[in-house]
Design goal:
heterodimer; A: alpha+beta; 39% strand; B: mainly alpha; Glutaredoxin; 2 domains; two-stranded parallel ribbon; two-stranded antiparallel ribbon; 10 helices; 47% helix; globular
Chain lengths: 138, 201
């Protein structure tokens, strides 16, 4: 029996993976975790690009059914929005990461399209003073 | 309005960069086309810039220098006094300060002061943004009812974040200029809270 795909959203990336869902619990295979989020589950903890993050004590990451998504998000320190019914979840950016970046006073870079679909980066304008003006039609 | 500022000051090594936190390019398009900007006018449907810069309402302006350093943090930045009678914020002072900065006629606050004026996001703020992002994805998948549940949750987690509470109204089929918005605003300011957060200086 194949479970319908579960989508893990991470920024502008999304990955459809196989997941075991029971109640509020979502369990992924280690391979699915690597594919969706780039982290490998090892004996040292969660590893990526040669860096390993130990799993905090009391966080039950690995279970008989696979890696628990809620525990994984907690281990990574990332906020998790979960919709079991819709089979989708989104991992956001940790507040300390955003706070540290802003407090550094180095303006975070970004890449966004204009109305023609051409992508512009803030860093395209290095060497000029910039007024970044965030607005909306609402 | 910002196009005029851009045109006036671009010869001084300056550019305006606008970012629209809108549901789609189509929502922002009429406004951008009417402005006929010579500066980049970008569309940010996933609220990436709101997340990176902890933007909780619009309009918000940030000054960034030639080295990419934030020299003036998030401010309620209006280009004109069209809504001054409602907002209580007059646009001339910021415009004068902007001109002085661009022309190199002013000294800027020390980095420590800039940091004092920044509001950094909390864990709950970021949880709200994750709920918004999930809602926005569901909306794009054609599941607006599921999306609305997450927009609602996001708004409850971050009631001060109007990029969520008002910004998701179009995706929930609510007029962001209509009675629901007015009721939300009334409730907010009656609690003694400010809808806009201008910088103190």
């Amino acid at each position: 029996m194949t479970d319908p795909a579960f989508t893990i959203i991470d920024g502008d990336a999304e990955a459809a993976v196989t997941a075991r869902v029971a109640g509020d619990e979502v369990r992924l295979s280690p391979a699915a975790v690597t594919r969706a989020l780039g982290w490998e589950v090892t004996d040292e903890g969660l590893c990526r690009d040669g860096l390993c993050v130990p799993v905090p004590p009391g966080v039950a990451l690995s279970t008989a059914d696979g890696i628990d998504l809620t525990a994984l998000a907690a281990a990574l320190g990332r906020p998790l929005a979960l919709d079991v019914q819709e089979r989708a979840a989104c991992l956001g950016a940790p507040a300390p990461d955003r706070g540290r970046a802003l407090a550094s006073l180095q303006a975070p870079d970004f890449a966004l399209p204009d109305l023609d679909g051409r992508v512009h980066r803030l860093s395209d304008h290095r060497g000029r003073k910039v007024l970044l003006l965030v607005w909306a039609s609402w | 309005m910002w196009q005029a500022v851009h045109a006036e000051l671009q010869g001084h090594g300056f550019t305006v960069l606008t970012v629209a936190l809108d549901r789609s390019a189509d929502d922002a398009r009429p406004w951008i086309q009417a402005a006929r900007p010579g500066h980049p006018a970008l569309v940010d449907t996933r609220h990436v810039v709101a997340d990176l810069y902890n933007v909780v309402n619009v309009p918000t302006g940030v000054w960034i220098d030639e080295r990419g350093r934030i020299v003036r943090p998030n401010d309620a930045t209006f280009g004109a006094d069209t809504f001054r009678h409602i907002t209580g914020i007059e646009s001339g002072r910021h415009l004068a300060a902007l001109r002085a900065w661009v022309r190199g006629e002013t000294s800027l606050p020390a980095p420590a002061r800039v940091r004092e004026l920044q509001t950094l996001p909390t864990v709950t703020d970021q949880q709200a943004r994750a709920e918004f992002a999930l809602g926005e994805w569901l909306y794009r998948q054609g599941r607006p009812e599921a999306a609305a549940r997450h927009f609602q949750r996001a708004g409850e987690l971050a009631p001060h974040d109007f990029t969520i509470r008002r910004g998701t109204m179009p995706m929930r089929g609510i007029d962001p200029m209509g009675p629901e918005f007015r009721a939300m605003l009334q409730d907010w300011v009656q609690g003694g809270r400010r809808y806009y957060q201008p910088l103190p200086e």
